[in-house]
Amino acid sequence: KCVTILCCNTAHLFLVFCLTGPTDAKITQTPNVVLKRGQSAQLTCRQTDNHNSMYWYQQQQGKGLQLIYYSVAVDNEEKDDIKEGFTVSRPKIDIFDLNISSVQTEHSAVYFCASSLDTVLQSHLLPLQKPPSFPLHSLRESSSSHLHI
């Protein structure tokens, strides 16, 4: 199961939300939605393990995962690699919403939601490498959403 946002020539945007992983996965995402280009989209991620940390990643075709936002507590959201056009909210420990204010072609990607019990910030990798700008963590559960414009 996965989330797909597809835009066709008629300027309609089709959202298909899916979940990856075992059938007993503790992460779920929003059901199917149909939108027009330029409309807003909300991807809702829910987890049932009361994990402190939740994450939204984007993976564009042919590229690696990029962390968009993460949250280490309710009402605590941190930006990371991708900021333009996205906002998040964490109103409860089990909910982490990713919002796209105006869906555009550059939002075409697979979106992954994940949760973990804790987050550990890494200060460095090797002396000649730049430290990552995002928290490194052990993901317990994750799900994905495909966004095609």
Automatic annotation (TrEMBL):
Keywords: Immunity, Signal. Coiled coil: none annotated. InterPro entries: Ig-like_dom, Ig-like_dom_sf, Ig-like_fold, Ig_sub, Ig_V-set, TCR_beta_variable. One of its GO terms (cellular component) is plasma membrane. It comes from the Eukaryota. SUPFAM superfamilies: Immunoglobulin. Residues 22-113 form the Ig-like domain. This is Ig-like domain-containing protein. It comes from Gopherus agassizii. The keyword Membrane does not apply. One of its GO terms (biological process) is immune system process. SMART domains: IG, IGv.
